[in-house]
């Protein structure tokens, strides 16, 4: 049987009297696209922060390919093949798109696993490799013609693409995306969704938080639903759409989105 790439085991986070996440467990398998959904304040970002070692859990643990990573430092995760994005854009505005991407590739060049299989002889070869890889990602994310544009001069949607490309350029095995479609128009949202599907076909695994239900239903293999910090459901998009607890949790919020998508 395939081993999970990510195991979330009984994660709990308390901030003083507030329990942001309570006893949440689930697994993600290689090649899956798994969405985490839930109403505002349900604990999605806190869960992501614990999985990516940004916030230590009060209880529980996280395993990446069977290895306990709960107490790792953030910077130790990229070499292990885990990358994430944030709700707020994390790009260098005063650098061009290609320069942003080339900073992302340095992670890969330092990656033990990668270095063992692909030794580059000189700094010049490394730079050439980084440039070619960055151009490949520029094309893949539809940023052609903008490679030498300063990121701060781009639209929000284009900046999101740069951030996404920078996150995946090091060929991570597991990518966590915090609201990758937030702030994007419909066309940009669908393009982002298609790029995620394309990268999955190339072997990447995705866990993402999102509010745009129609897109989630289109690309997610499985969905984990949080409400008031607890996991209230887990299943395929079809199962989640007709789950009574999920429909109840969304009453007054995005219920119509869940049912109509
Ligand atoms: N650093 C903190 N200190 C105190 N309470 C916090 C902290 N971070 C989050 N919380 C609380 O934990 C709960 C979950 O917040 P979280 O941001 O994880 O939810 P979310 O599902 O990501 O929400 P949204 O969809 O609005 O981004 C909220 O009640 C929030 O106020």
From TrEMBL:
GO CC term (a single one): plasma membrane
Domain of life: Bacteria
Single GO MF descriptor: ATP binding
Key word Nucleotide-binding present: yes
Alphabetically ordered keywords of this record: ATP-binding, Nucleotide-binding, Transport
Entry annotated with the keyword Nucleotide-binding: yes
SMART domains tied to this protein: AAA (SM00382)
The ABC transporter domain, residue ranges: 6-253
InterPro entries membership: AAA+_ATPase, ABC_AA/LPS_Transport, ABC_transporter-like_ATP-bd, ABC_transporter-like_CS, BCA_ABC_TP_C, P-loop_NTPase
Name listed for the protein in its UniProt record: ABC transporter ATP-binding protein
């Amino acid at each position: 049987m395939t081993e999970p790439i990510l195991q979330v085991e009984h994660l709990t986070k308390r901030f003083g009297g507030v329990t942001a996440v309570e006893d949440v467990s689930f697994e993600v398998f290689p090649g899956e696209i798994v969405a985490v959904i839930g109403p505002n304040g349900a604990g999605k970002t806190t869960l992501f922060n614990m999985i990516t070692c940004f916030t230590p859990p009060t209880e529980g643990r996280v395993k990446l390919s069977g290895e306990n990573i709960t107490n790792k430092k953030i910077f130790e995760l990229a070499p292990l093949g885990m990358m994430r994005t944030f709700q707020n854009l994390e790009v260098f505005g005063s650098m061009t798109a290609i320069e942003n991407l080339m900073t992302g590739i340095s992670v890969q060049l330092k990656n033990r696993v990668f270095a063992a299989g692909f030794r580059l002889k000189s700094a010049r070869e490394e730079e050439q490799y980084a440039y070619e890889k960055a151009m490949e990602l520029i094309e893949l994310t539809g940023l052609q013609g903008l490679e030498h544009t300063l990121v701060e001069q781009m639209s929000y949607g284009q900046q999101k693409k740069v951030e996404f490309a920078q996150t995946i350029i090091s060929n991570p095995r597991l990518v966590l995306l915090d609201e990758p479609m937030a702030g994007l128009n419909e066309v940009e949202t669908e393009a982002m969704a298609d790029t995620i599907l394309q990268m999955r076909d190339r072997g990447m695994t995705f866990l993402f938080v999102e509010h745009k239900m129609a897109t989630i239903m289109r690309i997610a293999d499985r969905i984990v639903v949080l409400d008031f910090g607890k996991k209230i459901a887990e299943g395929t998009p079809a199962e989640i759409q007709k789950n009574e607890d999920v429909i109840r949790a969304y009453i007054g919020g995005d219920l119509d989105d869940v049912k109509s998508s």
